[in-house]
Amino acid sequence: MKLCIYHNPECGTSRNTLAMIEASGETPQIIEYVQNPPSRECLIALLERMGMPPRDLLRRKGTPYDELGLDDPSLSDDQLIDAMLVHPILINRPIVVTDQVVRLCRPSERVLDMLAAPVKTFTKEDGEVVTYSEDR
Protein backbone atom coordinates (compact mmCIF):
# COMPACT_ATOMS: atom_id res chain seq x y z
CA MET A 1 0.00 0.00 0.00
CA LYS A 2 1.24 3.47 -0.84
CA LEU A 3 1.13 5.70 2.23
CA CYS A 4 2.09 9.34 2.79
CA ILE A 5 2.12 11.47 5.94
CA TYR A 6 2.12 15.27 6.10
CA HIS A 7 4.29 15.44 9.19
CA ASN A 8 5.63 17.98 11.63
CA PRO A 9 8.44 16.48 13.72
CA GLU A 10 7.81 19.14 16.40
CA CYS A 11 4.31 17.73 17.03
CA GLY A 12 3.83 14.81 19.44
CA THR A 13 0.64 13.66 17.71
CA SER A 14 2.44 13.64 14.38
CA ARG A 15 5.41 11.74 15.85
CA ASN A 16 3.09 9.16 17.44
CA THR A 17 1.20 8.70 14.17
CA LEU A 18 4.42 8.19 12.24
CA ALA A 19 5.65 5.72 14.87
CA MET A 20 2.40 3.72 14.60
CA ILE A 21 2.76 3.61 10.82
CA GLU A 22 6.37 2.43 11.05
CA ALA A 23 5.53 -0.12 13.78
CA SER A 24 3.02 -1.67 11.37
CA GLY A 25 5.84 -2.32 8.90
CA GLU A 26 4.88 0.47 6.49
CA THR A 27 7.48 2.85 5.08
CA PRO A 28 5.57 6.04 4.38
CA GLN A 29 6.56 8.94 2.23
CA ILE A 30 7.17 11.69 4.80
CA ILE A 31 6.40 15.26 3.80
CA GLU A 32 7.57 17.80 6.36
CA TYR A 33 4.93 20.25 5.20
CA VAL A 34 6.14 23.25 7.23
CA GLN A 35 9.35 23.30 5.14
CA ASN A 36 7.70 21.88 1.99
CA PRO A 37 4.11 23.11 1.94
CA PRO A 38 1.65 21.57 -0.48
CA SER A 39 0.62 23.48 -3.56
CA ARG A 40 -2.79 25.14 -3.64
CA GLU A 41 -4.07 22.35 -5.89
CA CYS A 42 -2.73 19.66 -3.55
CA LEU A 43 -4.18 21.30 -0.43
CA ILE A 44 -7.58 21.66 -2.10
CA ALA A 45 -7.45 18.00 -3.20
CA LEU A 46 -6.57 16.87 0.35
CA LEU A 47 -9.47 18.89 1.77
CA GLU A 48 -11.85 17.47 -0.82
CA ARG A 49 -10.77 13.88 -0.14
CA MET A 50 -11.21 14.45 3.61
CA GLY A 51 -14.60 16.06 3.03
CA MET A 52 -13.41 18.92 5.21
CA PRO A 53 -13.84 22.69 4.79
CA PRO A 54 -10.61 24.70 5.10
CA ARG A 55 -11.71 26.25 8.41
CA ASP A 56 -11.78 22.78 10.01
CA LEU A 57 -8.15 22.13 9.03
CA LEU A 58 -6.83 25.33 10.63
CA ARG A 59 -4.62 24.93 13.68
CA ARG A 60 -4.82 27.69 16.25
CA LYS A 61 -2.30 26.72 18.97
CA GLY A 62 1.27 27.82 18.28
CA THR A 63 0.36 29.57 15.03
CA PRO A 64 -0.37 33.10 13.78
CA TYR A 65 -4.13 32.23 13.72
CA ASP A 66 -5.17 34.94 16.19
CA GLU A 67 -2.95 37.72 14.86
CA LEU A 68 -4.21 37.01 11.33
CA GLY A 69 -7.81 37.22 12.54
CA LEU A 70 -8.68 33.83 11.05
CA ASP A 71 -11.63 33.40 13.39
CA ASP A 72 -13.48 36.00 11.27
CA PRO A 73 -16.48 34.10 9.85
CA SER A 74 -16.59 36.37 6.80
CA LEU A 75 -13.28 34.97 5.49
CA SER A 76 -13.78 32.82 2.40
CA ASP A 77 -12.38 29.33 1.90
CA ASP A 78 -9.93 30.81 -0.63
CA GLN A 79 -8.69 33.32 1.95
CA LEU A 80 -8.20 30.58 4.54
CA ILE A 81 -6.33 28.43 2.02
CA ASP A 82 -4.16 31.45 1.12
CA ALA A 83 -3.28 31.87 4.81
CA MET A 84 -2.34 28.17 5.11
CA LEU A 85 -0.11 28.41 2.05
CA VAL A 86 1.69 31.50 3.37
CA HIS A 87 1.88 30.07 6.92
CA PRO A 88 1.88 26.26 6.56
CA ILE A 89 2.10 25.88 10.36
CA LEU A 90 -1.63 26.72 10.25
CA ILE A 91 -2.33 23.34 8.60
CA ASN A 92 -3.36 20.90 11.30
CA ARG A 93 -1.45 17.64 11.35
CA PRO A 94 -0.77 14.90 10.72
CA ILE A 95 -2.61 14.22 7.49
CA VAL A 96 -2.24 10.62 6.32
CA VAL A 97 -2.93 9.67 2.71
CA THR A 98 -3.52 6.21 1.26
CA ASP A 99 -5.02 5.18 -2.06
CA GLN A 100 -8.36 4.67 -0.31
CA VAL A 101 -8.58 7.44 2.29
CA VAL A 102 -7.16 10.76 3.46
CA ARG A 103 -7.54 11.60 7.13
CA LEU A 104 -6.46 14.12 9.72
CA CYS A 105 -5.13 11.75 12.38
CA ARG A 106 -5.98 13.56 15.58
CA PRO A 107 -5.83 11.64 17.81
CA SER A 108 -2.98 9.61 16.40
CA GLU A 109 -4.80 6.28 16.72
CA ARG A 110 -7.12 7.38 13.89
CA VAL A 111 -4.37 6.03 11.61
CA LEU A 112 -4.70 2.44 12.80
CA ASP A 113 -7.61 1.34 10.61
CA MET A 114 -5.83 2.86 7.60
CA LEU A 115 -2.93 0.41 7.88
CA ALA A 116 -2.67 -2.94 6.12
CA ALA A 117 -1.32 -4.57 9.31
CA PRO A 118 -2.11 -2.24 12.24
CA VAL A 119 -0.22 -2.67 15.46
CA LYS A 120 -2.42 -4.22 18.17
CA THR A 121 -0.88 -2.30 21.07
CA PHE A 122 1.12 0.91 20.95
CA THR A 123 2.52 3.12 23.70
CA LYS A 124 2.48 6.82 22.89
CA GLU A 125 5.26 9.21 23.91
CA ASP A 126 3.25 10.30 26.95
CA GLY A 127 2.86 6.69 28.14
CA GLU A 128 -0.76 6.25 27.03
CA VAL A 129 -1.32 2.72 25.74
CA VAL A 130 -3.49 2.40 22.64
CA THR A 131 -5.05 -0.96 21.86
CA TYR A 132 -6.44 -1.59 18.38
CA SER A 133 -9.39 -3.83 17.79
CA GLU A 134 -10.95 -4.39 14.38
CA ASP A 135 -14.33 -4.09 16.12
CA ARG A 136 -13.79 -0.34 16.63
Automatic annotation (TrEMBL):
GO terms for biological process: response to arsenic-containing substance. InterPro entries: Arsenate_reductase, Arsenate_reductase-like, Thioredoxin-like_sf. Its EC number is 1.20.4.1. One of its GO terms (molecular function) is arsenate reductase (glutaredoxin) activity. CDD domains: ArsC_ArsC. Keywords: Oxidoreductase. Pfam families: ArsC. Transmembrane segments: none annotated. Belongs to the ArsC family. This is arsenate reductase (glutathione/glutaredoxin). It comes from marine sediment metagenome.
